[in-house]
Amino acid sequence: MTSAAELVTEFVEWCRGPGYKAPSTAEAYRQSLVNFVRVAGVADFATVTPSTLDFYVTRLKLATKLSDATIRSRSFALRVFFAWAHSRDRLPKNPASKDLFKIPGPREVEAVSVLEVKEIERILNVRQMPVRGPREPERFFARRAKRAAGNDDRDRALFAVTYDGALRVSETCALLWSDLEVDADGKASILLRKFKRSLHPEVVPLDHRTAGLLLLWKTVRRDLGIRGGSIFGLTVKGARGVFDRLWRLAGITPGRRRMTFHMIRASAATHASEAGMSDRDVQALLRHARFTTTERYLRKRTPEKQRRIRARFLFWNAAKFGQAGADLSRFSASGSQTRIP
User: Fold this and answer.
1) Between these two residues, 317 and 14, which has the higher pLDDT value?
2) 4-87 fold
3) Which secondary-structure segment (H or E) carries 137?
4) Which of 22, 65, 292, 302 is the least crowded, having the fewest Cβ atoms under 10 Å away?
5) How far apart are CA 271 and CA 265, in angstroms?
6) Distance (Å, whole) CA 254 – CA 243
7) Who has greater pLDDT, 292 or 281?
8) How far apart are the C-alpha atoms of 144 and 283, rounded to whole Å?
9) Could you give the 3-state DSSP secondary structure of residue 181?
10) Which fold has domain 117-331?
11) Cβ atoms of 175 and 232 closer than 8 Å
12) Which of 166-175, 288-297, 309-318 tops mean pLDDT?
């Protein structure tokens, strides 16, 4: 009788045969089978039943770090393996056939946590108030207060760029001053040289307010003697710490929300959708390869709340709507395509 390890090895070698599976796919199948043997406690594949497979899938669903795609790919690896083993008489039956074992579909889409427009306004207006120690020399306090004010300018610029461009935290931290372009008319844009699932650079337009915050931070950092090509000079962990400090200083109550840096990007997408941008344009704004990922950001609210959001909408880049093909006339009481105050 062939052992489980020998059967897995033989299956992987078959997958690596000419004209069938790519080496990366064969390795993924091998890892899925090893995980199945470990989690389900299988010593012999001949003893596996549909109930064993259902138990394994249930354990995968309880693992919060696994995505739906990972669970489906591991389930599909089991189906391919058992079909191969049964067709070559290595196993007496196929417990993973289509009529006995169903590959789980995507779970119900959950809406992401977002910031309200008024909360974004409070974050952009937050200021540190350093307190002088009882024995701290005045010159030391003045130096510390100047540095704190500079950090405020940096943090507001970081928040504005991330929100205006709907950037990921890694994209924000990787920005360089050479990626910022400002033309003679004052229109600014940033160049994302590399972003997720793409090798081509992308130009992201910025609003004049965001450009002003960036140029202010550029002046402040020069006065503080900060050098380097990076705009913010922060790691991913440092940028997340900046956001934690901002929402705490702004007095924002988390409630049931998970306060993460990704909330800035999610808020930009949700506010754009609620203000009238089409779903496909939101997908282009977020640079998602699949629309199913974008659906998590498309929270639909009541018409009354949508009207209030349109009135207080803070998604500054009206030009971005025009480039995306959205109709701006709905945002203006007079019907003309003007910037939202």
Assistant:
1) 14
2) DNA polymerase; domain 1 (1.10.150)
3) none
4) 65
5) 10
6) 13
7) 281
8) 43
9) strand
10) hpI Integrase; Chain A (1.10.443)
11) yes
12) 166-175
